[in-house]
């Protein structure tokens, strides 16, 4: 009886077991030759290491060996044909049971970027049959193997392993609704950044599969219940009131502050509408967003905080910087990403500066930032300094030359974090008080750790930096986790447009949907608004 266990995945393993006396012969695939007893073969158990060149010589000695031979799936039938020849060459063949004997399941460790599954195929081999019939059986097995290989090539990837729900690090985050979308470790992600990162055309189901856990903020907002009335706030701030109707964007009213941020958000929304593969997934909604730092109720805002006095019933949207960010002269998101990767990717971990870097002003969040300057002053591991645009300013891509990037929140959150997450470096920060839409993906410990958390007074900053300088393998693992999860996966344009379309759907389900509207009731079309930069056009002759 020959028993196969095939592990289909990468690599492809085929095990063939043949009971012989007290032992058995095993043929296993390690992408090698199919010759019986070649130099790369290994015999176990090994009371006597036999260097015989054929299986027949093994059997003729009447000893029980487990011979492990390299065989590929397409070569299995060929190996069995050789096995048959060797069996036929033995003068005194041992008795082979006709009953199928199921061997133990071969277990393989799941390596990074590899997931496998198993199935069993038992093929009887009766050695007492005539040689011609055995050759016919071997040829039939070859056809079966070729058919199986063809079927496997056409099949899709195996289903994902069970998802693992992560707990947010901030104590005030609150709990997501029951049975939220979990997220899986990067090594098992169903995402290829080379082909998927700029794909803006995923439908709702595909977005769920490609970005598990990304929509946790929307689930939390929906769990709060109906959004109620949507008032328009002060016209002198960065508010915009708008509608989406039949897949098109209309502007109803807007404030006069930080207009470039308003335009960036509207461009992001419009792009997510243009690329929606199924227009029926886009609901008709009325909404309002705010591009100032602090959030507002029943409004799409940039961040949320559990701090006392802050608005709680807000909905988090992606930052305007995912379109472009002009203030620090960073440019469009695509340009910044390309510049960062141009600096970061050629550098090995050893090539990077073994320093902790920070630039900023103490005008915002002065207590936190001022204490950082005090703790890091004059330290050999420190390149921490208050920003002077003329003498010590760094381009955003130049931060990637350092092993440690210190992140500090400002008025609320800081838009610098998403750029830091494009660097294969270790981000160091105290516990964050402000949450952005991707914050649930941050992990400060465990095998998937992607940043290092320090005390609010920075008292353990030197200790943490020195630890990771002394443990470069662990440090590089954290840095690798950062780029794999954020730069190469969740912070891609594909992830951003998926979030926007899920936000539209979630908002509609919470009471933001509108009924039928006449043309004059919808507002100024986006195409007209972006052309003139204003809602009211002067009458012309």
Description of the structure:
This protein is of the alpha/beta class and 541 residues long. Helix content is 30%, strand content 18%. It has helices at residues 55-60, 76-88, 131-154, 193-196, 204-210, 216-223, 259-274, 333-344, 366-376, 417-420, 461-470, 472-490, 493-512, 526-532; strands spanning 2-8, 13-20, 23-28, 42-44, 66-69, 117-123, 239-245, 248-254, 285-290, 300-301, 304-305, 315-316, 324-325, 331-332, 353-360, 382-386, 402-406, 426-430, 434-435, 452-454, 524-525. A six-stranded mixed β-sheet has the order 4-5-3-2-1-6, with no helix packed on it. The protein has a five-stranded parallel β-sheet with strand order 16-15-17-18-20. A hairpin with a 4-residue loop joins strand 1 (2-8) and strand 2 (13-20). Helix 7 packs across helix 13. The longest helix has 24 residues, at 131-154.
């Amino acid at each position: 009886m020959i028993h196969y266990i095939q592990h289909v995945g990468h690599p492809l393993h085929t095990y063939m077991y043949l009971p012989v006396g007290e032992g058995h012969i095993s043929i296993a695939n390690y992408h090698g030759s199919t010759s019986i007893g070649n130099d790369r073969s290994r015999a176990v158990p090994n009371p006597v290491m036999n260097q015989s060149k054929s299986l027949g010589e093994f059997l003729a000695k009447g000893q029980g060996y487990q011979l492990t031979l390299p065989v590929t799936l397409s070569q299995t039938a060929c190996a069995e044909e050789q096995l048959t020849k060797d069996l036929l060459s033995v003068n005194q063949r041992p008795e082979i049971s006709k009953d199928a004997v199921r061997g133990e399941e071969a277990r393989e460790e799941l390596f990074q970027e590899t997931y496998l599954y198993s199935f069993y195929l038992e093929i009887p081999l009766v050695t007492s049959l005539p040689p011609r019939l055995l050759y016919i059986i071997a040829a039939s097995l070859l056809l079966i193997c070729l058919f199986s290989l063809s079927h496997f090539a056409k099949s899709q990837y195996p289903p994902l392993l069970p998802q693992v729900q992560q707990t947010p690090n901030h104590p005030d985050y609150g709990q997501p609704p029951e049975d939220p979308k979990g997220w899986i470790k990067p090594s098992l992600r169903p995402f290829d950044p080379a082909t998927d990162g700029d794909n803006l055309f995923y439908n709702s189901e595909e977005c769920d599969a490609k970005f598990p856990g990304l929509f946790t903020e929307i689930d939390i907002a929906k769990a709060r219940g109906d959004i109620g009335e949507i008032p328009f706030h002060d016209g002198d701030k960065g508010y915009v009131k708008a509608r989406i109707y039949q897949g098109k964007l209309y502007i109803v009213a807007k404030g006069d502050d930080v207009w470039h941020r308003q335009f960036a958000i509207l461009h992001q929304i419009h792009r997510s509408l243009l690329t929606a593969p199924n227009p029926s997934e886009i609901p008709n909604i009325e909404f309002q967003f705010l591009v100032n730092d602090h959030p507002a109720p029943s409004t799409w805002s940039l961040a949320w905080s559990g701090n006392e006095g802050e608005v709680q019933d807000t909905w988090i949207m992606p930052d305007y910087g995912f379109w472009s960010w002009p203030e620090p002269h960073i440019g469009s998101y695509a340009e910044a990403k390309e510049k960062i990767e141009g600096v970061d990717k050629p550098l090995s971990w050893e090539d990077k500066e073994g320093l902790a870097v920070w630039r900023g002003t103490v005008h915002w969040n002065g207590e936190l930032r001022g204490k950082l300057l005090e703790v890091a002053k004059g330290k050999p591991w420190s390149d921490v300094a208050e920003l002077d645009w003329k003498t010590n300013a760094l381009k955003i891509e130049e931060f990637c030359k350092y092993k440690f990037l210190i992140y500090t929140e400002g008025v609320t959150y800081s838009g610098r974090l998403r750029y830091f997450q494009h660097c294969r470096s270790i981000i160091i920060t105290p516990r964050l008080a402000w949450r952005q839409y991707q914050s649930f993906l941050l992990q400060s410990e465990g095998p998937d750790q992607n940043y290092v958390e320090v005390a609010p007074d920075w008292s353990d900053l030197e200790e943490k930096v020195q630890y990771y300088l002394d443990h470069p393998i662990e440090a590089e693992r954290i840095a690798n986790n950062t780029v794999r999860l954020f730069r190469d996966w969740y912070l891609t344009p594909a992830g951003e447009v998926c979030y926007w379309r899920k936000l539209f759907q979630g908002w509609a389900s919470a009471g933001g949907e509108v009924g039928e509207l006449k043309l004059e009731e919808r507002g100024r079309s986006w195409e007209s608004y972006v052309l003139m930069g204003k809602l009211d056009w002067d009458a012309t002759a």
